[in-house]
Amino acid sequence: MALRIEIGQYYAADSPVHALDARAKLCCVLAALVAIFCVSNAAQLAVAAAFTVAALAAARVPGGLVLASVRPLVVFLAVLSLFNLVFVQTGEPLAAIGPLTITTGGAWAALLYTARFALALVLGSLILLTTTLTQLSDALDSLFSPLSRLGLPGHEIAMVFSLMLRFVPTLADEASAIVDAQALRGGGLDEGSPAQRVRSIVPVVVALLASGLRHADGVARALDARCYEGGAGRTHYHDQHLTHRDAIAATLTTTFILTLTLLG
């Protein structure tokens, strides 16, 4: 295929991370992501990188699969790094390329912000790589259940998130098929001038949007045909229980956050 996206693919393995309760896993990863986005110096960045590598090692997920899951966002990271390198003009000048001047502040900003986003993407990908969509849906339903007691649609919000995650692989496969169809019609994304390549993206986006709306309509009709009513005293096939593993994960995450706070 001309396009392959690995986002949303579960990797089965016997690891401590896979064995964690999905609710504890979600809370720990979200707390760690917030902490990573607050990193501001080299020591904190090194600790965040070590924590991410340790989490990957504990999950026993192949490095190539992790890189494949974040590959679609590599271009975004490259653009982010370039913008910081060029437009941040603090510190001492390092080099001048025509009208552009690269400074120490710009180089540090390019490294810091790109590294933070990369670590966050890798750590966030562990959720989808080590948690099935059913476990994730049940966890979201449980975490949003307090909203239902306040009169808010907690179950419906959780269902929307779970459906969104379930359709990521489906839409990725359809995007690949659409790109291949465009290439067969002579409108490949890797052919022609830069302006032509940009214009060739438009039909792909329109077709993908139409496909997404068709899927959404199909799901809505299926739920309506089954007289689905969100949160109507529904139970789960697998009960969720917090164990000592989840307490250890919470302790390690708390230690990581406290370490970053002390280094800051």
Automatic annotation (TrEMBL):
Keywords: Cell membrane, Membrane, Transmembrane, Transmembrane helix. InterPro entries: ABC/ECF_trnsptr_transmembrane, ECF_transporter_component. Coiled coil: none annotated. It is a multi-pass membrane protein. It is found in: Membrane. It comes from the Bacteria. The chain crosses the membrane at residues 26-59, 65-87, 94-111. GO terms for cellular component: plasma membrane. It holds the Pfam family CbiQ. This is Energy-coupling factor transporter transmembrane protein EcfT. It comes from Candidatus Olsenella stercoravium. The lineage of its organism: Bacteria, Bacillati, Actinomycetota, Coriobacteriia, Coriobacteriales.
